[in-house]
């Protein structure tokens, strides 16, 4: 009995190691071709008697954050054709904050079932924000039909969200401060990333296989640009070039 | 207070109520222009506070507009209750007492039976209490002449419907209710302007004889143009409650064309290149087509009102009130066209967009008043011409008499 148990444990261990050994990383860069429209100054924020005081210089929109080498930030890169897998209790929560009467970050990606904490770090001079979500009709809307709009006073506990269904660019907005908005993309598997300020991304521990990989950008590619990726031989690199026409 | 004096004060009160309603439309316009419609997510409370006790320190961001709108709406409601009582005279006290008692009772029932709706119950009880108080006002004034008491009751019902629509728009998260709320606000303002007209000394003095200087042939033109303006206001309200900002960013062309493309690729291009600073929804083909129709109807209205003004000036002298009112109407429409262009060219600046709403309301009310006058006291053109000649001679004589010797 003891030897059977030991053998089983060994097989599981070897299988796990083999799985890890065959897992690969997908890295890449997303660049932007073309000239994006210029960002605009958020004048309602600057003119707000309370919120404006929290910013020393101009505050502009951040739709196209382009690095010196044309790397495009805030692109969601995710795998398709992967068995759906919701986050479990061990998945750390994602965090979105309200600071200076702006959402940080403005673009976020989370897994289905993953906890999303919305904080309000603004001082008491901003008495409240009002977090209003706009999920598409379906399981996400059903889950929050009575909590579509939730006031959050300064210093109040974090608001918690957890979306059961995948959805691209689920909008968060503040109904008190209408220039505040953010988009959360809910992915039904753990293989996704958001590009950094240089347009770079890394998706870790992807099981060996062939997949579709999609790049989504709020403006340049709202419906996504798809490519094939193959991790059967190990790490893979996929680059995307998005166009602004 | 003798009857003439009572009428004057009644008229002044009616004008005050109409002006307060115009102010309410203005603040309501600011609410939508600043995308603040949901800034106070509960109703009739405000963030859990009784509406009248919500601390001013919390009137931040869009809350300032939405909460002020609610307070002014309550004020207009009070004015309407008083106006209804005044117009209806002592005969209205019984009806007001019954309605007030029913509202108090309904409010108490809601308060007692639905713990989650205590705020609604309390609010309804408060409204009922105010109506009951109006019924208990002791003045035994005579009712105003028909149809004023009936118009007063209509205003009484409409103001409560309007309040309910505004509240439901918030608690149900339904932007479409906002369109009805906006359209009814315009009709309500027209009603109050009509009451102000019918209580005026000018109307009282003129209606007894048939020498109210209007033209029979102008009735249909005034009415049709006024209806067209109302249709335009509904189009405008539908556009504003899409919460998509400006669907077309240039003027007088639309995306550089007489009629813009609305295929999916073009829409994607418009949305890609739009840099919105407010939380707007994406532009759709429907919104673009709506704005184009709004522009076309604006041209039609301008032509129609210019036609009305031209006809009035040909028929009557400048001293004739109809000629002056149609001139004012034309001025409003020209101003409205300019504001419409400015709304687009300024990127939908909130104050300009709101001014556009306000002048729209004034345009509708002016057309409605012209229609009322034209229908109420029609006169054939020869009679009108003879009368206007008499008026011209009278005013010349008056001017001569006033000249210093």
Helix/strand order of chain B, N-terminal first = HHHHHHHHHHHHH
| Range of strand content of chain B | under 5%
Structurally, the number of domains of chain B stands at 2
What's the alpha carbon Rg of chain A, rounded to whole Å?
21 Å
The shape of chain A is globular
Give the total of beta strands of chain B. Answer: 0
CATH architecture of chain A: Sandwich
How many strands, which pairing sense, and closed or not: the largest β-sheet of chain B?
Answer: none
Biggest interface reads: A-B, 37 and 26 residues
Structure classification of chain A: mainly beta
CATH topology name of chain A? Immunoglobulin-like
Mean pLDDT of chain B: 89
Strand content of chain A: 35-45%
The tally of domains of chain A stands at: 1
CATH superfamily of chain A: Cupredoxins -  blue copper proteins
Q: What's the CATH class of chain A, please?
A: Mainly Beta
| CA gyration radius of chain B, whole angstroms | 24 Å
């Amino acid at each position: 009995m003891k030897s059977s148990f030991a053998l089983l444990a060994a097989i599981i261990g070897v299988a796990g190691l083999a799985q890890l050994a065959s897992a690969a990383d997908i890295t890449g860069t997303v660049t932007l071709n073309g000239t994006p429209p210029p960002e605009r100054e958020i004048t309602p924020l600057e003119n707000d008697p309370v919120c404006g005081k929290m910013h020393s210089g101009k505050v502009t929109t951040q739709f196209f954050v382009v690095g010196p080498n044309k790397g495009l930030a805030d692109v969601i890169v995710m795998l398709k054709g992967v068995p759906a897998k919701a986050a479990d209790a061990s998945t750390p929560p994602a965090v979105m904050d309200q600071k200076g009467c702006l959402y940080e970050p403005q673009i976020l990606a989370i897994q289905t079932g993953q906890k999303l904490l919305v904080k309000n770090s603004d001082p008491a001079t901003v008495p409240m924000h009002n977090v209003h979500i706009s999920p598409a009709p379906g399981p996400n809307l059903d889950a929050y039909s009575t909590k579509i709009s939730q006031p959050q006073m300064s210093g109040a506990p974090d608001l918690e969200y957890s979306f059961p269904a995948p959805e691209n660019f689920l909008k968060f907005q503040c109904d008190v401060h209408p220039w505040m908005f953010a988009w959360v993309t809910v992915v039904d598997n753990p293989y996704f990333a958001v590009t950094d300020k240089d347009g770079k991304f890394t998706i870790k521990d992807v099981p060996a296989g062939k997949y579709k990989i999609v790049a989504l950008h709020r403006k340049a590619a709202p419906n996504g640009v798809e490519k094939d990726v193959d991790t059967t031989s190990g790490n893979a690199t996929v680059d995307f070039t998005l166009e602004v026409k | 207070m003798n009857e003439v004096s009572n009428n004057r004060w009644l008229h002044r009160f009616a004008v005050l109520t109409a002006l307060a309603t115009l102010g309410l439309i203005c603040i309501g316009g600011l609410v939508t222009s600043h995308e603040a419609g949901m800034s106070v997510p509960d109703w009739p409370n405000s963030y859990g506070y009784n509406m009248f006790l919500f601390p001013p320190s919390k009137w931040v961001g869009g809350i300032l507009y939405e909460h002020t709108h609610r307070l002014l709406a309550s004020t207009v409601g009070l004015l309407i209750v008083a106006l209804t009582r005044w117009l209806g005279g002592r005969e209205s006290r019984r009806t007001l007492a019954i309605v007030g008692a029913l509202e108090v009772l309904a409010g108490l029932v809601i308060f007692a039976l639905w713990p989650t709706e205590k705020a609604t119950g309390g609010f309804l009880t408060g409204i009922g209490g105010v109506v009951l108080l109006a019924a208990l006002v002791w003045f035994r004034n005579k009712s105003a002449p028909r149809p004023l008491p009936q118009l007063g009751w209509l205003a009484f019902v409409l103001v409560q419907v309007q309040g309910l629509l505004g509240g439901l728009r918030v608690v149900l998260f339904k932007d479409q209710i906002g369109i009805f709320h906006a359209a009814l606000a315009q009709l309500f303002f027209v009603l109050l302007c009509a009451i102000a007209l019918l209580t005026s000394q000018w109307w009282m003095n003129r209606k007894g004889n048939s020498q109210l200087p209007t033209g029979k042939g102008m009735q249909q033109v005034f009415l049709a143009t006024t209806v067209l303006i109302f249709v335009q206001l509904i189009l405008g309200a539908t556009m504003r409650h899409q919460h998509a900002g400006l669907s077309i960013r240039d003027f007088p062309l639309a995306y550089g064309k007489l009629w813009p493309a609305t295929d999916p690729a073009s829409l994607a291009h418009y949305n890609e290149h739009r840099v919105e600073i407010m939380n707007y929804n994406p532009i759709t083909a429907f919104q673009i087509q709506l704005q184009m129709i709004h522009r076309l109807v604006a041209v039609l209205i301008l032509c129609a009102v210019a036609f009305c003004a031209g006809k009035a000036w040909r028929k009557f002298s400048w001293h004739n009130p109809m000629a002056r009112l149609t001139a004012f109407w034309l001025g409003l429409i020209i101003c409205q066209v300019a504001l419409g262009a400015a709304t687009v060219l300024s990127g939908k600046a909130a104050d300009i967009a709101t001014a556009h709403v306000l002048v729209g309301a004034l345009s509708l009310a002016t057309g409605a008043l012209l229609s009322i006058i034209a229908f109420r006291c029609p006169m054939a053109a020869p009679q009108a011409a003879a009368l206007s000649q008499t008026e011209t001679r009278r005013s010349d004589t008056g001017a001569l008499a006033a000249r210093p010797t």
